[in-house]
Amino acid sequence: MAVIGGQLKPDLPAKFAGDSNMPGQINVEELEKSLLKPRTIFNQLLIVFVTVLTLTALVPLFSVLWMLLWKGGHNLSLAVFTQLPPSPMEEGGGFGNAILGTFVIVSIASMISIPIGVLTACFLSQSETGSGLASTVRFAAKVLTGFPSILAGVFAYGALVLTMGGYSAIAGGVALSILMLPTIVLTSEEAIRMVPKKMKEAAIGMGATDTQLMWMVLLPTAIPGIMTGVMLALARAAGETAPLLFTALFSNYWLGSSGHIDLRQPTASLAVLIYNFAGAPFDNQTSMAWTAALILVVMVLISNLIGQLFSRRQIN
Amino acid sequence: MDCDGQNGKDVVIDCCINDLHYGSFKAVRDTHIPIKKQKITAFIGPSGCGKSTVLRCLNRMNDIVRGFRFSGHVHFGGRDIYHPSIDAVAVRRHIGMVFQQPNPFAMSIYNNVAFGLRLNRYKGSVAEKVEEALKRAALWNEVSDKLQKSGLSLSGGQQQRLCIARAIATDPKVLLMDEPCSALDPISTRKIEELMLELKTHYTIAIVTHNLQQAQRVADETGFLYVDTSEGGRTGYLVEFGDSKQIFEDPQQQHTKDYIGGAFS
Ligand SMILES: Nc1ncnc2c1ncn2[C@@H]1O[C@H](COP(=O)(O)OP(=O)(O)OP(=O)(O)O)[C@@H](O)[C@H]1O
Ligand SMILES: [Mg+2]
C-alpha cells in the first residue's frame, strides 16, 4: 500500500495536496451550516409546508375514526353481534344478522370475482404487446373501474332479482363482484408483470410449460401484489350501499333459520343498515348506525391485516 | 455453410447456424460448433458478437424472444431440435441452463432445487436429490442448516451455485452456462470452475466467458466469435474453433490472434 501511496501523491492536483496558496483552496466556512442562507431558509420552509399538508391529508381519516369511536364505541357489547336490529321504539338490540349478511355477500362476491379476475390477469400478463383481445379486455376493465356502483345494482336487479323472483344474497354478491372484478384484474396483471424477467427465464430454461410457469413461479411470486388488489377490492365492496339496495335489500331477521343458511332471500348488510338507521328519527337506531359503521371499518381493517400477514408469509 | 461433416459419435450437440435474425437484425451467421460429450466447450469473443445468442439457441431459449428467426439446425443426439415435431419444453429438460445473473426463485433454497424435480413429477426421494445436487454444487455445507430460508437471502456467489444445483438436480445431459462467474468474486469463481471440472465427468458443458484465463483453465475446446461489420450490420460469426490449447497458443486466424494477443501480451 505504501508504494501505491508514494506513486499517487505526486500526481495529485495541488488543491488536494493542501497547498494554501493555490486558487483551488477550499474555503472551509462554506461548509458550515448556517440558518441564514437563503438556500437553508427555503429548504426549511418547504419541509414545514410539506409536513403540514401531509398532516392535513390525515385529518379526514382520523376525524372519521375518532367520530366512529366516540359515537359508536359506547354501544359495543356482545349483544351487537348476537341480537337482531331494534324496531323503532325498542331499546338495545344489535345487528348480528347484518354482520353475517355482509360477510356472506362479500364472500359470494369474492368467490366470483377472485378466480375470474386472477385468471383474466394471467391471460393479460402473458399476452403479446399487440394482442387485440388483451387490449380490449384491459380497456373494458379500466372503464369498469369507474363504473357507477348503482348501475351494477341495477344490472344485477334486472339479471337476477327479476328472474329469480326476489331479492337475495346471491344477487347482492353478483352486483358487488362486478365492482371488485376490474380492481382485481388490473392490480393482479400488474403484480404478475412485475415478477422479474430473469425468474421467468429461469423457469422456462428448466423446461417449465406455460402452465407450470404460471402456477409454480409467476402466481406464487406475485401473491403479495394480488392480495393487495383483492383487499382493496374487498374494502370497497364491503362499504357499497347502492348496489345492495337493488339486490340484497335488507332483512330484520337472520339469514336462513335453524342452522342452515338460505341465500335466496333478502339479506341484511352493514352498509344498508347504516343507510337505514342513520336517517331514522329514533336515538337507539342512529347510535346503532354509528356502531355498525365502526364494526364495518374494523372488519375492513382486519381483512387488510390478514392479507398483509398472508403475503408476508409468502415472501419468506 | 457445410455442416454435414462427420462429427463422430461423441458429439452431443451439433450446432449449425446459417443465419439468425432478431426481427430484421441479423445477429449471427455461419457458425458451426460441435459440442462433444463430457467435454467443456467455451465460447469467447468481444461483447455483442452473439455468444449468448448462440448458447440460447442450443436449448431453444430464443423461442421466447419476439421476432427470432433461425436457419440451420441444432442436432441433439441426432435429432434436429428445431424440427416442428420437437417439443421445446422437452428439449429444455435435457439441456439445462445457468444464466449470467443468478436468478433463484423467490422460494426456499430447498424448493429452488426441487423445482425441476417437481416439473418432471419426480417419483423418487426429492430430499435425497436436493441434497445430492447441493453437494455437487459445493453449496451443501453452507446451506444445510437453512434449507427453508429464501433463496434470495443468499450471497451472489451462493445464489449462482444454487442455480447450478437447481440445474443439475434433474440430471440434464448438457449444461449451458452463460458467463456464470461474471458477478462473482475470485474465490466463488474458483469454486465454480472446480465445480465445472468435477461436473464434466457426468455432464457435457458449454460455457460463455469473457475471462480468457478461465476458458484456458477449464475448456477442452474453444470457439472464437467475432463481429462482422462489413455488410453494414453487426453480425457475429465463428472465426475459429478447435482445441483450447491450439486456440490460445497457436491461433490460425488474424482476428483470433489480435483478440487473444490483446488479452495476454
Ligand atoms: N432479445 C434480443 N432482441 C434483439 N436483439 C438482441 C436480443 N438479444 C441480443 N440481441 C442482439 O444480438 C447481438 C448479439 O447479442 P448477444 O447477447 O448474443 O451478445 P454477447 O456476445 O452475448 O455479448 P455480451 O458478451 O456482452 O454478453 C447484439 O447486437 C444484441 O444487440
Ligand atoms: Mg451475453
Structure overview:
The complex is a heterodimer of chains A (316) and B (265). Chain A is mainly alpha-helical and 316 residues long. Chain A has a domain at 97-262 and 301-315: Orthogonal Bundle (MetI-like fold). In chain A, 71% of the residues lie in helices and 0% in strands. Chain A contains 13 helices and no strands. Chain A has helices at 2-8, 14-17, 38-72, 78-82, 96-126, 132-145, 149-164, 169-193, 197-205, 210-238, 242-247, 270-278, 283-315. In chain A, α6 (132-145) packs across α8 and α12 (270-278) runs antiparallel to α13. The relative contact order of chain A is 0.13. The model of chain A is unreliable at 1-18 (pLDDT under 50). Chain B is α/β, with parallel strands linked by helices. Chain B has a single domain (11-260), classed as Rossmann fold, CATH 3.40.50.300. Helices cover 34% and strands 27% of the residues of chain B. Chain B contains ten helices and ten strands. Chain B has helices spanning 51-57, 88-94, 109-119, 126-136, 140-143, 156-168, 186-199, 212-218, 244-249, 254-264; strands at 11-22, 25-36, 40-44, 68-76, 79-80, 95-98, 174-178, 204-208, 221-228, 235-243. In chain B, strands 5-4-1-2-10-9-3-8-7-6 form a ten-stranded mixed beta sheet, with helices on both faces. In chain B, a hairpin with a 2-residue loop joins β1 (11-22) and β2 (25-36). The longest helix of chain B has 14 residues, at 186-199. The radius of gyration of chain B is 18 Å and the shape is globular. The model of chain B has no long low-confidence stretch (mean pLDDT 89). The chains are: A mainly alpha (316), B alpha/beta (265). The structure holds adenosine-5'-triphosphate and magnesium ion (MG).
